[in-house]
């Protein structure tokens, strides 16, 4: 691209789109020039609030406007269809998690992006956060010794409303569990063994689950996710020499504690704090815009191969949950 800024179109006007659009004000490499919502009133209100010149109720019309890239912030059951349309139109795509409902949809989107020669990435903002850059440094520098374990969970008892999470295609694994699974892949890669238990409705909507992922070298990740129970939202990474705990809301946290044992019953604790820009999406939005400007088709922090491996793990977890509950599988 022979430009110094990416012109973005935002699809969806829900809470996440508001936060992302607000964070674009900190990004010199990209700015939002269009918004699309199913309701004209919602598109107009969103556009007036943020000074966006173009507003649409039809995504095809927005794709035909003067934009370079699309951010998709709609309910996750719509992601595959919307991302497919944008990629076929030759637009770069940053799509909220989950990128698809299963690994098959993720592979298809990757193939569409490659064929069109455009950028595609799941908006896994956690990987771009300053705290996770610091965690990578701590692990790579050997401060924990041999990293052997991870404990992470994300569970919240959401109200039983009319939102899409309670409809067919809804999934606590794809909505909440994707964060602990992604963290496990960041640390250890794809598991060599997997055990999962949980609850799935007859229509295939998984409500709660716990998974144990095994790896070579006796390494293990213990993960929990739920949309009907409250679970502790912190995370722990354990090593042979020390361990660290990430503050509650581990996927967006700005602090961790590094625990160094000294002698029996005693330890030195070191708190690591980082600054958050905006709502926390700024680092990802900046990096993605730069990648697009530099002609890249994916970002090295969250590649197509990374995403495919994560979804293969989630497919395996959901497969075990469905087998236990006798529920309807999500097509793969």
Blueprint of the fold:
Layout lengths: L5 E6 L3 H9 L6 E7 L3 H11 L3 E3 L2 H5 L5 E4 L6 H10 L3 E4 L7 H14 L3 E3 L7 H11 L6 E9 L16 H17 L4 E8 L5 E10 L3 E8 L8 E5 L3 E4 L8 E9 L2 E8 L8 H12 L10 H22 L7
Parallel strand pairs: 1-2, 1-4, 2-3, 4-5, 5-6, 7-10
Antiparallel strand pairs: 7-11, 8-9, 9-10, 11-12, 12-13, 13-14
Low-confidence stretches: none
**Order of strands across the biggest sheet?**
8-9-10-7-11-12-13-14
Percent of residues in β-strands: 25-35%
> If classified by CATH, what would the architecture of the largest domain be?
2-Layer Sandwich
* Class from helix and strand fractions: alpha/beta
Query: What count of domains describes the coordinates?
Result: 2
Description:
- This protein is α/β, with parallel strands linked by helices.
- It folds into two domains: 6-125, NAD(P)-binding Rossmann-like Domain (Rossmann fold); 127-279 and 311-325, Dihydrodipicolinate Reductase, domain 2 (2-Layer Sandwich), CATH 3.30.360.10.
- Helices cover 33% and strands 27% of the residues.
- It contains nine helices and 14 strands.
- The strands form two sheets. The chain has an eight-stranded mixed sheet with strand order 8-9-10-7-11-12-13-14, with helices on one face.
- A hairpin with a 5-residue loop joins strand 8 and strand 9.
- Helix 7 packs across helix 9.
- It is globular, with a radius of gyration of 20 Å.
- The chain starts with 5 loop residues before the first strand and ends in a 7-residue tail after the last helix.
């Amino acid at each position: 691209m022979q430009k110094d800024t990416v012109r973005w179109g935002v699809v969806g006007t829900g809470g996440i789109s508001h936060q992302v659009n607000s964070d674009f004000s900190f990004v010199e490499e990209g700015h939002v020039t269009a918004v699309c919502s199913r309701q004209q009133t919602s598109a107009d209100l969103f556009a007036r609030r943020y000074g966006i010149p173009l507003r649409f109720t039809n995504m095809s019309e927005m794709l035909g406007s003067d934009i370079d890239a699309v951010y998709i912030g709609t309910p996750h059951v719509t992601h595959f269809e919307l991302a497919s349309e944008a990629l076929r139109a030759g637009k770069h795509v940053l799509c909220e998690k989950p990128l698809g409902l299963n690994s098959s949809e993720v592979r298809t989107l990757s193939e569409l992006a490659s064929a069109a020669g455009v950028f595609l990435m799941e908006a896994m903002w956690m990987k771009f956060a300053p705290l996770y850059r610091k965690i990578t440094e701590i692990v790579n520098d050997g401060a924990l010794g041999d990293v052997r374990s991870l404990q992470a969970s994300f569970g919240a008892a959401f109200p039983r409303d009319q939102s899409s999470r309670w409809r067919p295609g809804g999934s606590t694994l794809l909505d909440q569990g994707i964060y602990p699974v992604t963290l496990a892949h960041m640390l250890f890669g794809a598991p060599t063994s997997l055990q999962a238990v949980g609850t799935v409705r007859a229509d295939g909507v998984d409500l709660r689950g716990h998974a144990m992922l095994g790896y070579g070298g006796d390494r293990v990740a213990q993960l929990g996710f739920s949309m009907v129970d409250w679970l502790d939202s912190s995370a722990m990474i354990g090593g042979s020499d020390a361990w660290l705990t990430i503050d509650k809301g581990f996927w967006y946290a700005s602090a961790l504690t590094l625990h160094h044992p000294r002698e029996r019953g005693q330890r030195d604790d070191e708190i690591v704090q980082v600054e958050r820009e905006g709502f926390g999406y700024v680092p990802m939005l900046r990096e993605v815009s730069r990648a697009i400007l530099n002609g890249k088709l994916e970002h090295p922090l969250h590649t197509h191969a990374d995403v495919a491996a994560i979804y293969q793990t989630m497919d395996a977890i959901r497969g075990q949950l469905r087998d236990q509950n006798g529920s309807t599988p999500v097509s793969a």
